[in-house]
């Protein structure tokens, strides 16, 4: 827990959060890193390619996924979590269950990435506060409504999440917002959110964008999941230009390169 309390999210440059799924059924890479050795090797590879944060998850949250019991989720995490933490790169735990968050932070995770924005498990906000961890509060919906004012819904959802965080004692500087690309939204709503992402800065918190390989990209390009890299880069670079502080990606190397180029374009260079 002390490690979580001591962590500070860097603000001098955008952060690349590498995805490490130790699941058999995630939509993009399910099963590839479910074996501890494979998970650790992939974590090392992402660090070598420029990952600033590793986001490890043991339950798929893709559409129509089957919920995983708490002990099954922990059984998938336990063999790999401490070894991944031991690599030295900050670790985020992708879970909406308070007990998993507690155990993961005790093992060294410094961020809790909750796809239900503290609103699924009533004990989650307290668990994050007790650990002194950062929290990513993602917008989500149980269903899709194409007629919904999605930006208004996101604002209302975030207000509730921020209130839960504040009430539990999670410091304001440890709160991060994620608009939830691909979760409870139509394709058009996803792109509306992307185009208006800068309006979410009014909440005064860092923004995370996670559209890696998602259906919104496949819908435009007609590309299968494994062929969505360039689309993912385009969406994430747009998000960064509109104020995102973190991009969550499967393909860390290309994203790290794009972040470096984006940084370079903001520098005044001497032509001589």
Kindly describe this structure.
It is a single chain. This protein has helices spanning 2-6, 36-48, 70-85, 98-106, 124-131, 150-168, 187-195, 215-221, 229-241, 252-265; strands at residues 15-21, 53-57, 91-94, 111-114, 134-138, 175-178, 208-209, 246-249. It is of the alpha/beta class. The chain has one domain: TIM Barrel (Alpha-Beta Barrel), CATH 3.20.20. An eight-stranded parallel sheet has the order 6-5-4-3-2-1-8-7. The radius of gyration is 18 Å and the shape is globular. The chain starts with a helix and ends in a 7-residue tail after the last helix. The model is unreliable at 27-31 (pLDDT under 50).
Brief digest:
This protein has 272 residues and is an alpha/beta fold. It has helices spanning 2-6, 36-48, 70-85, 98-106, 124-131, 150-168, 187-195, 215-221, 229-241, 252-265, and strands at 15-21, 53-57, 91-94, 111-114, 134-138, 175-178, 208-209, 246-249.
SSE diagram, text form:
Elements (H helix, E strand, L loop, with lengths): L1 H5 L8 E7 L14 H13 L4 E5 L12 H16 L5 E4 L3 H9 L4 E4 L9 H8 L2 E5 L11 H19 L6 E4 L8 H9 L12 E2 L5 H7 L7 H13 L4 E4 L2 H14 L7
Parallel strand pairs: 1-2, 1-8, 2-3, 3-4, 4-5, 5-6, 7-8
Helix pairs in contact: 2-3, 4-5, 5-6, 9-10
CATH C-level name: Alpha Beta
CATH topology name, in short, is TIM Barrel
- Count of all domains: 1
Give the N-terminus to C-terminus distance in angstroms.
Answer: 50 Å
Q: What is the overall pLDDT average?
A: 93
The CATH level-2 architecture is identified as Alpha-Beta Barrel
> What percentage of amino acids are in beta strands?
5-15%
As laid out across the biggest beta sheet, the strand order is 6-5-4-3-2-1-8-7
Question: How would you characterize the largest beta sheet?
Answer: 8 strands, parallel
The topology string of helices and strands comes to HEHEHEHEHEHEHEHHEH
Q: Any idea what the shape is?
A: globular
Low-confidence stretches: 27-31
């Amino acid at each position: 827990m002390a490690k979580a309390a001591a962590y500070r999210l860097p603000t001098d440059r955008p952060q690349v959060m590498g995805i490490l799924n130790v699941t058999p059924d995630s939509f993009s890479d399910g099963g590839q890193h479910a074996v501890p050795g494979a998970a650790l090797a992939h974590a090392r590879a992402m660090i070598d390619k420029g990952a600033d944060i590793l986001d490890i998850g043991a339950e798929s949250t893709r559409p129509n996924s089957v919920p995983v019991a708490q002990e099954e989720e922990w059984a998938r995490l336990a063999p790999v979590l401490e070894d991944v933490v031991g690599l030295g790169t900050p670790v985020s735990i992708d879970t909406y269950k308070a007990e998993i968050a507690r155990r993961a932070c005790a093992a060294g995770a410094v961020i809790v990435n909750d796809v239900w924005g503290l609103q699924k498990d009533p004990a989650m906000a307290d668990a994050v506060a007790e650990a002194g961890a950062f929290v990513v509060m993602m917008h989500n919906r149980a269903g899709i409504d194409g007629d919904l004012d999605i930006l208004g819904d996101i604002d209302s959802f975030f207000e509730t999440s921020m209130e839960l965080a504040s009430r539990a004692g999670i410091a304001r500087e440890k709160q991060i917002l994620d608009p939830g690309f691909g979760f409870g939204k139509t394709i058009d709503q996803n792109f509306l959110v992307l185009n208006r992402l800068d309006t979410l800065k009014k909440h005064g918190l860092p923004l995370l964008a996670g559209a890696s390989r998602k259906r919104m990209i496949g819908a435009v390009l007609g590309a299968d999941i494994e062929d969505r890299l360039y689309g993912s880069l385009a969406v994430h670079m747009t998000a960064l230009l509109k104020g995102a502080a973190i991009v969550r990606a499967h393909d860390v190397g290309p994203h790290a390169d794009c972040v470096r180029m984006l940084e370079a374009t903001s520098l005044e260079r001497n032509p001589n």
